[in-house]
Design brief:
Radius of gyration: 21 Å
InterPro entries: PaaA2_dom
Organism: Serratia inhibens
Shape: flat
Protein name: Stability determinant domain-containing protein
Length: about 60
């Protein structure tokens, strides 16, 4: 009988290195965003725009 699990068979050191690599990548992305010269977009503006997009998609789905 074969028991299947969702546990990875990768060595722990390899998994740890992947985590560290991701952490370095993520921190670099955050640092780049903080230092960006692009204009900031207020959270409320983004949320309002997304609500409009979602409402439009819901309307299209109702019509299908």
């Amino acid at each position: 009988m074969v028991i299947k699990t969702s546990l990875s068979t990768q060595p722990i050191a390899e998994v740890a290195e992947q985590g560290e690599s991701y952490d370095r990548w993520f921190r670099a992305k955050i640092e780049a965003a903080i230092n960006s010269e692009k204009p900031r977009v207020p959270h409320e503006q983004v949320m309002n725009e997304m609500q409009i997009r979602l409402a439009a998609k819901k309307k299209i789905r109702k019509m299908e």
